[in-house]
């Protein structure tokens, strides 16, 4: 079982992570000129959306970060929990926006973060956790316990 | 351009659609023993989750139905709107749970519903709309204007 390097930890994303997270996400895709205010508004929105599971209220958005011993964010990712009618009004976890800082690759941080988010979703009661990725990342996600199950399609204007 | 058959229309899902929707969803997958109360609670939850887009508050869950002239639900589907940090705190539409009643296939109801949900997501400001499907449905979604863009992977216990 892989473990985090000494001093590293996984925790929820916080407002003070603004610069590090924006930087880390650039490894994944276009981030754009996100201001601190927009970032904080997004975090506040994410916090405001909850889901009732039995007697508990749980967050719908679950953004997390891996931080190193110095407190710097070195990886980020989230799992969004969707409530459906199918599967006995089942829950589905959507793993999204996984990014590991370029200089931190090879430490299994991505794998550990994905396992963390996947466990979180199953503990919340999700009957499945899904994600979409490039063909070239299939092998990596298989190491995380995922299996190829369908085709992702998109519509852009 | 395909159009709905005479008397058919698309509207938001309502509580009175309970039996028809549960029946229609069985074409897609396992629904289970969803009670009227659970259905209504899910609808109420979906209504309660909103998103601020500029000055407006828009629903995060957008369940819709196609009804025939007699008011019977003949197709159903939804689009969930996710707020991200990437892409300038962009929005992504997730088209989910598309099902057309068996005796209503061949009328392009699925295509019209998907175009409706896709337009709704783009009008809300989504930079892309995505969906996951079986390999065998790729041709259908291509007719709806979608392109293959990645691999869906899942994790089930
Ligand atoms: C597992 C994972 O992290 N998948 C990501 C997805 O979450 C992210 O939103 C998208 C961004 O790409 P885009 O900028 O082209 O939408 O890339 C990948 O599909
Ligand atoms: C575009 C579309 O409708 N895709 C559906 C998805 O929305 C649905 O949730 C899933 C149910 O399958 P499951 O019961 O195996 O989770 O099937 C398909 O992937």
TrEMBL record, chains A, B:
Domain N-acetyltransferase: 8-157
SUPFAM superfamilies, A to Z: Acyl-CoA N-acyltransferases (Nat) (SSF55729)
PROSITE patterns: GNAT
Catalysed reaction equations from the record: D-glucosamine 6-phosphate + acetyl-CoA = N-acetyl-D-glucosamine 6-phosphate + CoA + H(+)
UniProtKB keywords: Acyltransferase, Transferase
Source organism superkingdom: Eukaryota
Enzymatic class: transferase
Gene Ontology biological process: UDP-N-acetylglucosamine biosynthetic process
Biological or metabolic pathway of the protein: Nucleotide-sugar biosynthesis; UDP-N-acetyl-alpha-D-glucosamine biosynthesis; N-acetyl-alpha-D-glucosamine 1-phosphate from alpha-D-glucosamine 6-phosphate (route I): step 1/2
One Gene Ontology term of the molecular function aspect: glucosamine 6-phosphate N-acetyltransferase activity
Record-linked InterPro entries: Acyl_CoA_acyltransferase, GNAT_dom, GNPNAT1-like
Keyword rRNA-binding: no
UniProt-listed Enzyme Commission number(s): 2.3.1.4
UniProt similarity note: Belongs to the acetyltransferase family. GNA1 subfamily.
PANTHER family per record: GLUCOSAMINE 6-PHOSPHATE N-ACETYLTRANSFERASE
Record protein name field: Glucosamine 6-phosphate N-acetyltransferase
Organism: Lachancea meyersii CBS 8951
Lineage of the species this protein comes from: Eukaryota, Fungi, Dikarya, Ascomycota, Saccharomycotina
């Amino acid at each position: 079982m892989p473990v985090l390097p000494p001093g590293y930890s996984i925790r929820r994303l916080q407002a003070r992570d603004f610069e590090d997270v924006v930087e880390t996400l650039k490894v994944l895709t276009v981030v754009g000129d996100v201001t601190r205010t927009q970032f904080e508004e997004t975090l506040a929105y994410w916090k405001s959306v909850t889901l009732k599971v039995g007697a508990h209220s749980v967050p719908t958005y679950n953004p997390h970060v891996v931080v190193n011993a110095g407190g710097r964010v070195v990886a980020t990712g989230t799992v969004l929990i969707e409530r459906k009618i199918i599967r006995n009004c089942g829950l589905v976890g959507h793993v999204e926006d996984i990014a590991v800082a370029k200089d931190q690759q090879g430490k299994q941080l991505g794998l550990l973060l994905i396992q963390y988010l996947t466990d979180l979703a199953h503990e919340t009661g999700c009957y499945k956790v899904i994600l979409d990725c490039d063909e070239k990342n299939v092998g990596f996600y298989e190491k995380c316990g995922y299996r190829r199950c369908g085709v992702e399609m998109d519509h852009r204007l």
